[in-house]
Amino acid sequence: MTSTLAPRRKRSTVVRPGDRIFSGLSTSAGILILIVLAGVAAFLTIEGIPGITASPDEVKSGQSFLPYVWPLVYGTLLAAVIALLIAVPVAIGVALFISHYSPRKLGQVLGYLIDLLAAVPSVVYGLWGIGFLAPKMAPIYQWLESNLGFIPFFAGPASATGRTIMTASIVLAVMILPIMTAICREIFLQTPRLHEEAALALGATRWEMARMAIFPYARSGIVSAAMLGLGRALGETLAVAMVLSVSAGTVTANLISSTNPSTIAANIALSFGEASGKTVNALIASGLVLFVITFLVNFAARAVVDRRKDFSGAN
Amino acid sequence: MAKSIDVSDLNIYYGDFLAVEGVTIPIPAKSVTAFIGPSGCGKSTFLRSLNRMHEVIRGARVEGKVLIDGQDLYASDMDPVNVRRMIGMVFQRPNPFPTMSIYDNVLAGQKLNSKRMKKSESDDIVERSLRSAGLWAEVKDRLARPGSGLSGGQQQRLCIARAISVEPEILLMDEPCSALDPISTSVIEDLIHELKAQYTIVIVTHNMQQAARVSDETAFFNLSGVGKPGRLIEVGRTETIFSNPQDPATEAYIQGRFG
């Protein structure tokens, strides 16, 4: 026994310096991420708790924490979800066009242009939203109010400036489009040719081939792309802060009025400069809430992807 | 069901490159026709031109005629999508849809016809197709599991079940056993024997024993040289081709002297 075990153990201890260096580097990179994340979480928690427990007269808003943060959470989620609803179908469509429909040259050019959108700083999107999109949207909001006003989303009164949560969401949608398109495109391109041909040989049209072979294969990738987009939309600060006309404490389903809930990130950016004492803690606590929301969203996305792991095509 | 194919003077191009030149071959209904020949001689390309699958590659086109029971496959009003619904195909590597269950894989073609089916009706189709493909006994208890969990030979039979579930006129097989072990191969060869009662089968194979075992007719393809197009050298009854070939190149190939 010992004589057969001994050489085996000896062989497994052969470690090449290259391996050791690389595994050390990658392990420490992985640990570093955890440390940074833990550091941020610890900071938010320690600094945030006084804000959560602060009494209403200690903070500028004059409210205790929950009623203060709830409209912000609502606004954050509403803007991000609308942005996602707009951006996901567009991203999938554009990615599919680039990967499977367009002539190769056109697809490449389009891919570059989309990537370029990602390089535009968010302040520029904010300017575009406030200076171009909002005035253009105002008449549309008027029309929506008078024709579809019975739907709570369009109840009005329509904003005259167009600086509504709808406009903010459209700006957000444009901002998250590039990353989502890029990911979807990469995944669509990776669809095994075998599966595409299987669908085509059964007599699938191109669209049926996409539904039969490409989308199921890309499903988890599309979810990841949407979550990355959602993460960015939840955290986006400057563009929302510039575009949105806010009235504190609003919680409404109305998407086209001039009284809108703010978002957590935009609210921090706008209020931090003139905040002091417990108000700062309250703002940091709202940051902690955003942190937790983002974490939960990612967690939920993982769960969705994992639930159908057997069918993912990875086995 | 089961139609004959009549190909006359078919040239297949990829862009400007002539891949296959001047193929004229009659393929009788309800029989197995095997294409043999060295790699790169255009037999797979030619097979794919029989259900217009070669068009998936950019720039591919053909000149000449392919008649399915007298109907021109390349007529301007012929939709390749309809062609492929009529002519099923099984590929070199088993390719069940990994995201679908065994059950849904078999029904994939039916879904494209977008007929609404009752559950009992689709159950029948699944059972009948899997029985025809000789797979029913092995998978009947796990129809809801993914098709990718099966062994290679089972996956290939699942693909055959998927292809025949829509009751095509013709079944094209592109080296269906080249990724399989000998036992799975012999199961599929037996299956081909049974299927030819109902379907016209065209099979590409690198395995000459397989061609001799399963086919009624054999066609030998060859390249005239590097960079030259592939050509059909000769076609005839399988016994004749293997015992008394007309062309010296055919004889050299089947005796293993090249290729």
Describe it for me?
The complex is a heterodimer of chains A (315) and B (259). Chain A has one domain (18-311): MetI-like (MetI-like fold, Orthogonal Bundle), CATH 1.10.3720.10. Chain A is mainly α and 315 residues long. Helix content of chain A is 75%, strand content 0%. Chain B is 35% helix and 25% strand. Chain B has a single domain (5-254), classed as 3-Layer(aba) Sandwich (Rossmann fold), CATH 3.40.50. The model of chain B has no long low-confidence stretch (mean pLDDT 89). Chain B has a 10-stranded mixed sheet, sandwiched between helices. In chain B, helix 3 (102-112) packs parallel to helix 6 (152-164). Chain B has 259 residues and is an alpha/beta fold. Chain B is built from 10 helices and 10 strands. Chain B starts with a strand and ends in a 5-residue tail after the last helix. At the A-B interface, helix 7 and helix 8 of A face helix 2, helix 3 and helix 6 of B.
Search tags:
heterodimer; A: 315 residues; mainly alpha; MetI-like fold; globular; disordered N terminus; B: 259 residues; alpha/beta; Rossmann fold; ten-stranded mixed sheet; 10 strands; Phosphate_PstC (chain A); transmembrane (chain A); transport (chain A)
List the helices and strands and how they pair.
The complex is a heterodimer of chains A (315) and B (259).
Chain A: H1 2-12, H2 17-53, H3 65-101, H4 104-119, H5 122-148, H6 165-189, H7 193-201, H8 206-235, H9 238-243, H10 264-272, H11 278-307
Helix pairs in contact in A: 2-11, 3-4, 3-6, 3-8, 3-11, 4-6, 5-6, 6-8, 7-8, 8-11, 10-11
Chain B: E1 5-14, E2 17-27, E3 32-36, H1 43-49, E4 60-68, E5 71-72, H2 80-86, E6 87-90, H3 102-112, H4 119-132, H5 136-139, H6 152-164, E7 170-174, H7 182-195, E8 200-204, H8 208-214, E9 217-223, E10 230-237, H9 238-243, H10 248-254
Helix pairs in contact in B: 3-6, 4-6, 6-7
GO molecular function (chain A): phosphate transmembrane transporter activity
Keywords (chain A): Cell membrane, Membrane, Phosphate transport, Transmembrane, Transmembrane helix, Transport
Subcellular location (chain A): Cell membrane
